Amino acid sequence: MNIDKAKTLTRMKTLTELHGVAGFEDKVKAYLKSEMKPLVDTFVYNRMGGFYGVKRSKAKNPKRIMVAAHMDEIGFMVTHITQNGMLQFTNLGGVATDIWQGQRLKVQSRKGEEIVGIVANIPKHFRTGNEGAPKIEDLLLDIGAENAEEVRQRGIEIGDSIAPDTPFIQLSEHRFASKAWDNRYGCLIGIELLELLKDVELDFDLYVGANVQEEVGLRGARASAELIDPDVALVVDCSPANDMKGKQNLSGELGGGTLIRIKDGTMLLKPTFRDYLLNIAEKNDINYQYYISPGGTDGGEIHKAKIGIPTAVIGVCARYIHSTNAVFDMRDYTAARDLLKYSITNLNESKIEALQYH
């Protein structure tokens, strides 16, 4: 079956605009479950907050294949409420320190409301020229309150989460901008994979879902891997593109196709798995690009779990991730979706064993 592009864009908008920083993924989880429920037989959960929908096979003693996204986005946590009603905060995930002044952020209050504020900045008129880049802990979020009491009356307390206030927009025919494409991409592709395979009988049980707290150190992935104990895992995650001045080595180019991540700071792709993905891409005319990253994905934890789990990352790249806006190309998403679908449907017991032990 095919998926209507308008449906994909609606889901893309919904997912990227949801508030769900590391440790506060509940809204994303609720949306994913509602979309996945008609497409799976059951759900399984770990105690950290990760969950997976299971599409059962009719085969006897089936293998288990895991498709893993992560729900969380980068963001912040309230650490102090000043007497004049400003909020201080700490980061949740890796962020540059020099991009936040003057930006709009949203606080998720204890009352369930999302309250918009502006990160304070010093007007040009009052600058001395000696300010330098501020530290995150020195920034202030201005929600328009006049004092600390008013902040608390609005339901905001220390420990509450903050995310960028960024709408999903279309920039051109193929390119879009949003917050949280890292990694609502993986959440979206998981839903659409299940939809594409709705009427397909598989020789293995398929586990599709998402982990928590990836952005603060891949913390939720191991719990999911040990819950499922998969025979093979495919991680779906977003990576930074470095193509603003043209293609730069193996660092991602918008429109270049899905990413086959051969090396990063947490995992090396097994040659047998690399060749399997390349063969699938070539046979199905799927655009792809090699990718190397100093960072990592949940694959860094998954591939080390139990007695070792053959793991590959099927990714897309985007510009300016871990900021208020990411720019990405829809063609890269569809290439990744095709590679994921065909990688799953071409697996069988002998290929799984080859990925495990060769």
UniProtKB/TrEMBL annotation:
<feature type="binding site">
    <location>
        <position position="70"/>
    </location>
    <ligand>
        <name>Zn(2+) 1</name>
    </ligand>
</feature>
<dbReference type="InterPro" id="IPR008007">
    <property type="entry name" value="Peptidase_M42"/>
</dbReference>
<feature type="active site" description="Proton acceptor">
    <location>
        <position position="214"/>
    </location>
</feature>
<protein>
    <submittedName>
        <fullName>Aminopeptidase</fullName>
        <ecNumber>3.4.11.7</ecNumber>
    </submittedName>
</protein>
<keyword id="KW-0031">Aminopeptidase</keyword>
<dbReference type="Pfam" id="PF05343">
    <property type="entry name" value="Peptidase_M42"/>
</dbReference>
<dbReference type="GO" id="GO:0006508">
    <property type="term" value="P:proteolysis"/>
</dbReference>
<keyword id="KW-0479">Metal-binding</keyword>
<dbReference type="InterPro" id="IPR051464">
    <property type="entry name" value="Peptidase_M42_aminopept"/>
</dbReference>
<feature type="binding site">
    <location>
        <position position="182"/>
    </location>
    <ligand>
        <name>Zn(2+) 2</name>
    </ligand>
</feature>
<comment type="similarity">
    <text>Belongs to the peptidase M42 family.</text>
</comment>
<keyword id="KW-0645">Protease</keyword>
<feature type="binding site">
    <location>
        <position position="182"/>
    </location>
    <ligand>
        <name>Zn(2+) 1</name>
    </ligand>
</feature>
<feature type="binding site">
    <location>
        <position position="322"/>
    </location>
    <ligand>
        <name>Zn(2+) 2</name>
    </ligand>
</feature>
<feature type="binding site">
    <location>
        <position position="237"/>
    </location>
    <ligand>
        <name>Zn(2+) 1</name>
    </ligand>
</feature>
<dbReference type="GO" id="GO:0046872">
    <property type="term" value="F:metal ion binding"/>
</dbReference>
<dbReference type="GO" id="GO:0004230">
    <property type="term" value="F:glutamyl aminopeptidase activity"/>
</dbReference>
<feature type="binding site">
    <location>
        <position position="215"/>
    </location>
    <ligand>
        <name>Zn(2+) 2</name>
    </ligand>
</feature>
<dbReference type="InterPro" id="IPR023367">
    <property type="entry name" value="Peptidase_M42_dom2"/>
</dbReference>
<keyword id="KW-0378">Hydrolase</keyword>
